[in-house]
Amino acid sequence: MDTPIARTWLLGLCGSLRRESYSRAVLDGLAPMLPVGTMLDSHDLRLPLYDEDEDGPATPAPVRAFRETIAACDGLLIVTPEYNHGIPGVLKNALDWASRPYGACVLIGKPALIITTSPGFVGGARAQAQANETLLSCQARIVTGPQVVIGNIAEKIRDGRLVDEPTLRFAAAAIDRLLVACRETHRPDPV
Ligand SMILES: Cc1cc2nc3c(=O)[nH]c(=O)nc-3n(C[C@H](O)[C@H](O)[C@H](O)COP(=O)(O)O)c2cc1C
User: Fold this and answer.
1) Where are the beta strands (DSSP E) in 82-145?
2) Of 3, 23, 41, 177, whose CB count within 10 A is highest?
3) How many angstroms separate the CA atoms of 15 and 178, rounded?
4) Does the CA dihedral 132-67-76-104 come out positive or negative?
5) pLDDT tens-digit series, residues 144-187
């Protein structure tokens, strides 16, 4: 009998909307390296601006779809640049929508790996810290271990993809930890 291949669905969230985004190139460079049975889809973060008056019965359809997609995926792979020493408003806005309803949001317990990028030396380390804080407050299951902060990103991209081998290997090790968290999250509690 063939051994069934476990399917793991990662949802990629890119903190940049820029057409030639380096962060998007990181997602595109990592996709072919994923283990067999792992899928990576991305969700566009062009959502309306968060408005608590619109959150409830009138929640905009794109936001509902976003929340449902997060609920359905096994884990989040967030790749983002740093803007002004923090995460871009686009990503914060999306996480704010995802964080509600309070106490029952789709991020609770959701495995999440954060990768930050920068053309500068520091690799978006400050955005990494801020994304950690936000996801912690949402009770996401943040992947721990060495943080993936990718500096000098412009030199590591070719034809719209991350190609730098040491960086790919380092990020792949973190994705392995994300996949372990995804499996553990689905595993039934021992009796
Ligand atoms: C509004 C703005 C603020 C920025 N602030 C920072 C910063 O604080 N730290 C940093 O390393 N790069 C900063 N940058 C440079 C970005 O890292 C660079 O534009 C990067 O290419 C954006 O990511 P992307 O290629 O994925 O779009 C900033 C860029 C913009 C547009």
Assistant:
1) 111-117, 141-142
2) 23
3) 19
4) positive
5) 999 999 999 999 999 999 999 999 999 999 999 999 999 999 75
- DSSP3 helix / strand / coil % (the chain, rounded to 5): 40, 20, 40
User: Does the C-beta of 116 come closer than 6 Å to ligand 1?
Assistant: no
Query: Is 123 within 8 Å of 117 (Cβ atoms)?
Result: yes
Residue 51, classed as helix, strand or coil, is coil
Nearest-atom number in ligand 1 for the CA of 15 is: 26
Domains of the chain: 8-47+60-166 (3.40.50.360)
pLDDT digits (tens, 9 = 90+) for 44-77: 999 999 999 999 999 999 999 999 999 999 999 9
Q: Is the CB of 82 inside a 6 Å radius of any atom of ligand 1? A: yes
> Does residue 84 line the site of ligand 1, with CB under 6 A?
yes
CB-ligand 1 contact for 88 (6 Å cutoff): no
Consecutive H or E run containing 5: none
| Token pair in block for residue 167 | 């960086």
**Exposed, middle or buried by CB within 10 Å (0-12, 13-18, 19+), for 26?**
buried
- CA 122 to ligand 1: nearest atom: 11
CB-based contact 112:76 (threshold 8 Å) = yes
